[in-house]
Amino acid sequence: MKRELMDILACPVCKGDLVLNVMEEDDTEVVKGIISCNACNIDYPIDDGIPNMLPPENR
Prior knowledge:
The chain is mainly β. Helix content is 0%, strand content 41%. It has one domain (3-50): Single Sheet (N-terminal domain of TfIIb), CATH 2.20.25.
């Protein structure tokens, strides 16, 4: 996932702001990490550079 994507992402549940927590990164993108919404306390995983932005009940 490109870091620039964070500029346009919002929480799909509450539309709140998101925070990126990077666990693994290469030269061009975030490979593994977590995108968190502090407003509704939901975490969205990033695996192999792909963010899973589905609400928890739909994963």
